UniProtKB/TrEMBL annotation, chains A, B:
Record-level GO cellular component terms: cytosol
Domain 6-phosphofructo-2-kinase: 65-290
Record Pfam families: 6PF2K, His_Phos_1
A molecular function GO annotation: ATP binding
InterPro entries named among the record's database cross-references: 6Pfruct_kin (IPR003094), 6Phosfructo_kin (IPR013079), His_Pase_superF_clade-1 (IPR013078), His_PPase_superfam (IPR029033), P-loop_NTPase (IPR027417), PG/BPGM_mutase_AS (IPR001345)
Domain of life assignment: Eukaryota
UniProt name for this protein: 10381_t:CDS:1
Organism: Paraglomus brasilianum
GO terms, biological process: fructose 2,6-bisphosphate metabolic process; fructose metabolic process
Keywords from the UniProt entry: ATP-binding, Nucleotide-binding
Disordered: annotated segments: 348-368
Upper taxonomic lineage: Eukaryota, Fungi, Fungi incertae sedis, Mucoromycota, Glomeromycotina
Length: 529, 529
């Protein structure tokens, strides 16, 4: 009578445990009696339910139809890295298959400048809505308009959440107690879900100044004289600072769920964190840094199975694969030296600049060389690929979590054989590679691999060292998808050829990618555009 | 030339990334050039290294020979739950295979009372070293003795760490800035590892009072009149409070790594958290609660494979297994109702007590009924076991992480067959079931399963709902081992028969266990002693 699990059932996950409010009022599943569950791993955890009328439920495969929802409300002065945090969080949650969207009040304000008809406030139409005067806390008309814009933006978020969105992020300064109360009340009237306030505080003047300069290339200032722009932006920040009220202990009285990130996660304060999703967000936000470093990624060298097109298995390298492995060791050694030289050159320049401004200053000591890690899977073809890398220079580890997707019954078969022997399975996979789980004990889907790799992603965010990861096609796609913010539909078809090395460098506004291809003729790597 | 991975290689994990200090000075492996690596999953991550002299390294299988070390230093007034936190953290880390030990200053002090010869302070020998006077901050002799005892205890910890320990926990009040500086300096002189201060703060008077009463049954007061004891203990706390200096922002200047837990994790402040191990500790500490609830655990009903002794596979239930499944549904429904009745009875008693002390008080509303979750693995035998449980009453989920240990090549074989066909493997497993990994693609060890189940353990700690988990022999052993603090050597041999239900109730000082056995004759469950 009750619904049995179907193998390809994908994203019918659970929802949050919040006591009495047992039923998800706002989802498409409101006709069902769906229990709110605590654990939420979209696509991994499978929910059993039936219609309240006793019929079996056919789960929608559309993402976000059920499951927990969360509204994240940002708090903080301009130039404190809110947008950085917001983009990163969105990228991570999207990668984990939570449908996530950012609602930016600044963009709405700029749209209003363009259309001038969204809200009619005649006395303000003459003012540019990013000039400092617009942000003067004593400018009451402007304040009211800013509140209305914040709510306007919030309404868009709420609409989106009611149409299946999972995590909506309200990206604005929300810098007073009153504004936050307004926002919270507004959400609680219209949406049944948890709200997490995330405040970004930065006391480090250098970081704030750097953030301000980044802003000048942004949309508010693109046609403005840079000096005038910086000046105006500084005034805007001063105006915000006048009225800024950090999240306070008084706000804790109302059981507000919040997280303060101080100086890029150097200090973190978390209050009343409830639910799996909020906990994951905070764990993620606690674990990132802005240190310059390189993450090198590649697949193993060509294996004997690659030649005949067999999937899975535990083959050794082909002759070609062994040549790649030899060359890889030389290449990565060279890159390690180049990075160190760059680091020393930068240090020298910094010391010289400091000495010019203050000749009596004691020069900072040379920074230590970064560790360089090498991670492979436990499979022979990745272990053999790092065979020539010197463990005296590199810390080499073999990690089960980096193993290739496990193809269950189809291990060591070719796609052609699968197509001929199991045409239904072959087509099911073709139609939905992301959700398709290989049959047989232990068979995995892309989603299974995402959740298996998740702790390594958090670890990569936490690390400040350089690293080379030698892994497999599916795992490489999944890691690249995280760093490059690839659409989930595109992940299973990303081209990641053998004998190609990717270098990722996390930067304040995204990840810089360079690509190198092994060239057999020259027995060296060529940089691709 | 370089060492290849051996399949049973167990605990040769990495160490922390802390910049220049590349080599682990104090471990047994100091002869090796071992790179400090960031990720640390004992037994899962495998490190490649060789002797500095070029010989291949045979890794010690002894736990903790290499890898990161951490000293946790507790801070907080008496009766603020320090011992609770310390025991829990030790249990969790030990379960994750980090060799962890608690060094309690109170126990050392009590030993001194007994032997009176550890430190000779004649003027104090007359005083009982738990009487309130001993804790008076103006009692300088006693203060010096307390400092010396704290360092004495710390030296024991340092010795133990230098002999292979991984996480040493200094369990004392450490309630002044000076004391913490003394401790930190002392560690840094003698040990090269990170130090994490964990401060427990509790402003909730009810909790503190309850903790104080618990103390009276402890070793300091066991032969004392209860009223006198409570009085003395209260005075002791007052004396501590006089001198107590919570971890302050000034201490942040020296880059102190700390975590404050306020009111049982309601609020958490983390500062300068570095390294994988510290991050995991804090994530764990952020995710627990003291709410009364029940965790029910059982294996699936007997399967057709169980009858013939086949391991792994995806068999259905036998007729006997199906009878168990039917009875289980009735039993768990009954337990759900019983828990609810208990909850309501307690509520009623609370309301009556309150009304007696204040007849005008408005009675608190009836608490909502707890959600009751049911988790199974993705294997048919667990799904069939919950077939009769009503999804209108229970939130049912199927989770891959709860699947049985994957036996790789030996799936669907009997132990007898393995013994006959692969005697070497059979013996290797018999000699070290914990570290033995089944051969073949995807084959797992107990340690692999521990790391796979880890996120579910954190989730169980976070949840406040009731739950029934229907899983498999190895996974059940591993979950029980966590809650019941079972020695790692004993885990693989724990008897966990079919058709037996375990009920775990987390309590302030450990986990209460009750056991129920399915009786075929009466078709019901009998409670075992």
């Amino acid at each position: 009578m009750f619904l049995n699990v179907r193998r390809y059932l994908s994203n019918d996950s659970d929802s949050e445990d919040d006591g009495a409010d047992k039923y998800n009022k706002y989802s498409e599943l409101q006709r069902f009696k769906v229990h709110r569950c605590s654990l939420d791993l979209p696509g991994i955890v499978q929910l059993q339910a039936r219609y309240a009328n006793g019929n079996e439920a056919e789960f929608s495969t559309q993402q976000g139809a059920s499951g927990p929802k969360l509204v994240v409300v940002m708090v903080g002065l301009p130039a404190r890295g809110k947008s950085y945090i917001v983009k990163k969080l969105k990228r991570y949650l999207t990668w984990l298959q939570y449908d996530t969207k950012i609602f930016n009040v600044g963009n709405l304000r700029r749209n209003m400048n363009a259309t001038k008809n969204l809200l009619e406030v005649p006395e303000l139409l003459g003012q540019r809505r990013h000039s400092a005067a617009f942000f003067d806390p004593d400018n009451n008309d402007a304040k009211n308009l800013r509140d209305r814009m914040a709510l306007e933006c919030l309404d868009e978020l709420i609409d989106w959440m009611n149409n299946g969105g999972r995590v909506g992020i309200h990206d604005a300064t929300n810098s007073t107690v009153n504004r936050r109360k307004l926002i919270l009340d507004h959400i609680q009237q219209k949406l049944s879900c948890k709200v997490l306030f995330v405040e970004s505080i930065c006391n480090d003047k250098k970081t704030v100044e750097a953030n301000m300069r980044l802003k000048l290339s942004g949309p508010d200032y693109k046609n403005m004289d840079p000096d005038e722009a910086l000046n105006d932006f500084r005034k805007r920040v001063v105006n915000y600072e006048k009225a800024y009220e950090p999240i306070s202990e008084e706000e804790e009285q109302s059981n507000m769920q919040y997280c303060k990130l101080i100086n890029v996660g150097k200090k973190v304060i978390a209050h009343n964190i409830q639910g799996y999703l909020s906990g994951q967000c905070i764990f993620y936000l606690m674990n990132f840094n802005l240190v310059e470093r390189q993450i090198w990624l590649t697949r193993h060298g060509e294996s004997t199975d690659n030649i005949i097109g067999r999937i899975g298995g535990n083959a050794c390298l082909s002759a070609k694969g062994r040549r790649f492995a030899e060359c890889l060791a030389k290449f990565i050694s060279k890159q390690k030296i180049a990075f160190r030289q760059q680091q020393l050159a930068k240090h020298k320049a910094d010391v010289e600049a400091e000495q010019q401004s203050d000749p009596s200053a004691i020069p900072a000591p040379e920074p230590p060389e970064k560790n360089f890690h090498v991670w492979t899977s436990l499979l022979q073809r990745t272990i053999d690929t790092v065979e020539h890398i010197d463990p005296k220079e590199f810390g080499i580890m073999h990690i089960r979590f980096l193993n290739e997707i496990y193809a269950g019954l189809y291990e060591e078969m070719t796609y052609r054989e699968i197509e001929q022997l199991y045409p239904n399975e072959y087509n099911a996979r073709k139609n939905n590679k992301l959700y398709y789980r290989y049959p047989g004990m232990g068979g995995e889907s892309y989603l299974d691999v995402i959740h298996r790799v998740n702790p390594l992603i958090v670890e990569l965010e936490r690390m400040t060292d350089n690293i080379l990861i030698v892994t497999h096609q599916v795992v490489l796609r999944i890691i690249l998808a995280y760093f490059l913010d690839v659409d989930k539909e595109s992940v299973p078809d990303m081209p990641v050829p053998l004998h190609t090395i990717y270098c990722l460098e996390p930067k304040p506004y995204g990840t810089k990618l360079t690509k190198w291809r092994y060239d057999e003729d020259t027995n060296w790597f060529l940089e691709e555009e």
